[in-house]
Amino acid sequence: MRDILLIDNGSKRADAILSLRRIASGLAERLGETVHPVSLLHSDRAPPSALHGQPADTFEPFLSRRLSENTRRFLILPLFFGPSRAISDYVPERIAALKDDFGPFDVRIARALCPLPEGEPDLVEILLDRILETASEQGVAPLRILLVDHGSPIPAVTEVRRWLARQLAQRLADDRGPRIELGEAVMERRPGAEYDFNGELLEDRLRALAAENISTPVILSMLFLSPGRHAGPGGDIAEICASVERDNPGFRVHPSALVGGHPRLLDILTARVAEMEAASAITTESA
């Protein structure tokens, strides 16, 4: 038997942990087997009282427990858009340490949600759906759109946002015509020219858009999976938008719903499991 782990970075906020659990539960229904929602760090500090009495699992303690129970096969599904160091560095380091303690065991890590260079067309469709939903709910035309992500010190992670922006721009132009303006921004970034690949800060870009045209609203296409201190209610992005709107009366910013709640995300995750099973079958046949 194997354990399937759906892993994210982790958060002390209950809404982020509950979101991970909902995605894992939906995926389990698709697959017909248990999917364990496991955060890499932080989530074990959330009070169980905010989690329906069930403490959150974090990566190393969860694996230690399951290894102690004699589970030896694990499939890891990263709930990450791109090649985060959490997956490329932290996870292998912890696995190596656990093998020192427990002996050999099998761990397979699936691809990220938007692996480059081929990308992930379903993720483009999710973002497009969210943009059009927001436009409809707010009663506005989707004329100015800003694709925003958290920001990363890794150029390859930022390139995922850039790939998605190019695909989104093309889809919007095909569906809605050339008048749509789609830009990119980053919620936060490290200082210094070496991190300029991240692009413009969200607050700076919104202030520039307000100065250009205060009457045309901006739809924020949220490249975030779950609510938390960044993308959740009262989080960093909400505060940035509120600050810009306060300073520019009449200017409106409408954040979209997040990626994690879209049913098509389960299609992507199901495909990642199928890819790993196909690769495993090929390996077995070759042996």
TrEMBL record:
Gene3D superfamilies: 3.40.50.1400. GO terms for molecular function: lyase activity; metal ion binding. Keywords: Lyase, Metal-binding. The keyword Metal-binding applies. It comes from the Bacteria. This is Sirohydrochlorin ferrochelatase. It comes from Thiocapsa roseopersicina.
